[in-house]
Sequence to fold (154 residues):
Amino acid sequence: MARALGESVTRAPRPHAPAPAAEVAALFADQPAPVRDLLGGAAGCSGYLGWLMRAEADWLRAALAAPAETTLAEVIAAPTPADAGPSLRLAKRRAALLIALADLGGVWDLDAVTAALTALADRAVQVALTAALGEEIARGRLPGCGPEEAAGGA
Fold:
């Protein structure tokens, strides 16, 4: 069985900005030292990642306790055409955080990081196009097509 993301951390970046690093490390004081170092280092080097860690703290705790591959599969599967905008934004946020931490923490190599980004992009395009096609079919702009064609690409 694959190891949890939090158990697989082998390195951490040195924080450029110590204040955000300390804030995030304190927020995750319940995590092991290597995880706190990773989270703090990432937050101290990237304001966006620091914001994501604070905004997604509960989800991140669960993600750290599960294998990164499992969590990524769940994140990528979550967006739906019926709720494309919000669900794609949530998936992008969570995938960005997960992929960045797996990369910075030495959990994934370059091939795995690239594959994860590609899988997210593939799913995002599929969901967005299915949603857009469904809207056009609903407006009657694609004669002869019904709602069932949207999922199949008409």
